[in-house]
Amino acid sequence: MAFHSQRFKAFLGRFSVARYSLSPRTSPSSLVSFFSTNKPRSFSSTVLEEEDLPIEIATNSTRVFDESELLQELFELLPVRYKNSSSNSSVPYPLEKPTQIDAGADDFLPVEDKLRGVFLQKLKGKAAIENALTASITKDLELTVDTVGKVVNRGNLGGEAMDAFFTWAVKQPTVPIDLSTYHVILKALGRRKFFDLMLDKLHDMHAKGICPNCETLEIVIDSLVRASRIAKAIDLFEKLEDFGMECGTGCFNVLLQCLCRRRHVGKANSLLNSKREKIEFDSMTYNIVIGGWSKMGRVTEMEKSLKAMVEDGFTADCLTYRYLIEGLGRASQIDNAVRIFKRIENEGCTLDTGVYNAMINNCISVGDFDECMRYYEQMLRLNCLPNNDTYVKLIGAFLKAQKVSDALEMFDAMLHRGIVPTSAGECGACCGGVFAQRFLPK
């Protein structure tokens, strides 16, 4: 390459001198008068007529270059192709050999980036893609399920690319063909809304003798409901036998849970009423719907679902009471929530942390911190241990009300019980103000 560069500079040096040399005796004024004349001049190619040139210039205009010689030398120096005007054929000329990239130049890349980069090459054919993927795995690296998840969940792979990669991955001896491996690709395809490919994977699981479970069904149905494909999700539930599953109580609860989680509680309630004689329900079936109405503060609908629950012979449990108290609090009916809590106490029911958290949250919503602490102390007396949600609610409320000393005291109690907030978790985010108050300079 250096040789060609020097040769090209030498070639340009031949033209660095003016085509017509000027003698030292030539005055600038003579050139100015020559270029400023109004007399029209004719040009032949790029050579001026000698009669219009000064004597010194005209006498030195004897150096003539052969055009074919110049083109040939340019072709040897520059990597170009010359197209003949008389025909459409192109005359190739030798180009420089591309620099070979060292095979280990991309060793600094993570293995998932190497595998994902194969699909940037736009290779054609299944065999070519699989060979390139295999070449990306070195001997000291093993393909794992975690790596497969990083490849399909990150980046911007299309549906066909994700499908081709997973098909190759499950052929590797280090990747087990089991339910957890298929959950990885189902989540990735559902998140990107490649629903047809997601259902194909379900059929593939069934063909290989891998029976889906409730977690598999939740991944698929939640992806459809999140994309507002409610009818498709219900149709999938009706055809569960095609995938080796039964439309039982557990699968039906999964469908209701996905619908209520995405605030399609009305559709979940309609399904519950329509399947009453076809599917056997349990207390969780009704609790899911009651919890959905509770998130929306629909007290009347909660009461209807609770009445249907009792009519079917099920007894309300702590989860039911928790949803009722939360729903009443969202509807600003704090007094009714307190009455339900006292009735539970009088009946001798054992209350869990969720019920106390619901009451604490209701008291926080009206700014009654004395009642908050009363319920908190009652929890401790009854050996009902607080959890992360308890401290998140209390510390967040104290900080919002600028009760820094109370927040610090609650934070110490949380640490004393072995509950350590994480920087990425909800508790860590809520307790950031405590750290700022205690450790940052005023």
From TrEMBL:
Pfam families documented for this protein: PPR, PPR_2
Residue ranges of PPR repeats: 178-212, 282-316, 317-351, 352-386, 387-421
Keyword Cell cycle attached: no
Ribosomal protein is among the record's keywords: no
UniProt keywords, alphabetically: Repeat
Protein name: Pentatricopeptide repeat-containing protein
Source organism per UniProt: Nepenthes gracilis (Slender pitcher plant)
